[in-house]
Every structure is written in structure tokens, then in C-alpha cells.
Amino acid sequence: MDNDNNNQIQNANQNQNENEMKNLEKKVTKNLIKDYSNLLNGNSFKDFSIFVENKSNPFEIKVHKSILSSRSPFFNESLRQESLFYFF
């Protein structure tokens, strides 16, 4: 009987720990998404500009080199060269 009770307690504790970990993972993920969203939408710390030549409406897109390089093999390689490059 005591073994059954001990096993039930251990299983209950394990389930509680697993639920706490899942909740923590959800919270961390939600905060990370919020932080990246703030980083992408804000102008602080943007260290690179992409200029778009459009006859009627040229514009500049300010970006983070670290995000570009982590998300795009092309930009990763291009930014390593630290030179200007143009697209046509």
C-alpha cells in the first residue's frame, strides 16, 4: 500500500513539475516574441539601412544587421564583406 501511495505522490509531483515547465516555456516564449517585436518596430539600435530606389517614391528601411544575417544566408555573406552592394 505504501508503495502505491508513494508512486501516486511521485506521479502527481512529476505532472505538476511538467505543467509548471510548460507554463514557464509559454511565458518565456511570449516575452521573447514581445521583445523581438519591440526591437523590430522601434528605431533604437538599428545599424543598417536598405535604400529602395523607386522612381515615384524612394525610401529607406532601417534594419538590424544581426537579425538580417541570422535570418538570411544572402545577407549573412554580404554583410560579412562590409561593403556596399546594390540590387537591380
Please describe what this structure looks like.
The protein is mostly helical and 88 residues long. The protein has two domains: 1-42; 44-88, no CATH class. 62% of the residues lie in helices and 11% in strands. The chain is built from three helices and two strands; from the N terminus they run αββαα. β1 (48-52) and β2 (59-63) form a beta hairpin. α2 (65-71) packs across α3 (73-80). The radius of gyration is 24 Å and the shape is elongated. Residues 1-18 have a biased composition (Low complexity).
Topology:
Layout: H1 2-41, E1 48-52, E2 59-63, H2 65-71, H3 73-80
Antiparallel strand pairs: 1-2
Helix pairs in contact: 2-3
Order of strands, widest sheet: 1-2
Task: List the total number of helices.
Answer: 3
Q: State the separation between the terminal residues, measured CA to CA.
A: 78 Å
Largest sheet: 2 strands, antiparallel
The low-confidence parts are: none
In the residues, how many domains can be counted? Answer: 2
Fraction in beta strands: 5-15%
Mean pLDDT: 84
Structural class: mainly alpha
Q: What's the β-strand tally?
A: 2
From the alpha-carbon coordinates, what is the Rg to the nearest angstrom? 24 Å
Element order: H for helix, E for strand: HEEHH
Helix content: 55-70%
Morphology: elongated
Biased composition (Low complexity): 1-18
Protein name: Speckle-type poz protein
Organism: Anaeramoeba ignava
Pfam family, one: BTB
